[in-house]
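W.,

You were right to be curious about this one. When I first looked at the sequence I had no strong expectations either way, so I just let the prediction run and decided to look at it fresh. Below is the sequence, 151 residues in total, followed by the output.
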Amino acid sequence: MLTETEITFKNSASCKISLSAEDWEQGLGTPEKLAKNMAAKDSFAFDILENGKVIGFTMLRPHENDRYSYFIWDFAIDQTFQNQGHGTAAVRALLELLRSEYRAKRITLTYLDGNERARHVYEKCGFTEFNRFVEPDSLPDEVDMELLFNI
């Protein structure tokens, strides 16, 4: 059971969690791709901690030409902590941080169709689908979601 989840800014431990092969395939790609994304201009990451232990990470970047809009590039919870409410609590804490400290007005993200765990968490936190990119060759569609803050 989730007792305390805090989001702290840290640009390091994002690849130091245990993920299943399915989690990597559901959008994270590879650890090498993740490291490359971390090095991208303007990207930043947060480790997700419970009682001081890293249980996940998220990586973000601001949208071009809109300093109040952010894209959640990657989000993952260690497989041993999944299905216990950590993902929902972490997304809610991240949204509050972006709203209050970064003055975010719009948050977007993309997940692969069929990743019901991701869809459930994001919808529970208030995200709605606004676009769908149909992939060729029977690959899963990319589903774009957004959350708008009432400011």
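Here's what jumped out at me. DSSP finds four helices and seven strands in the chain. And, maybe more interesting for your project: Strands lie at 5-9, 44-50, 53-63, 66-77, 106-112, 128-133, 142-148.

Coffee later to discuss?

I.
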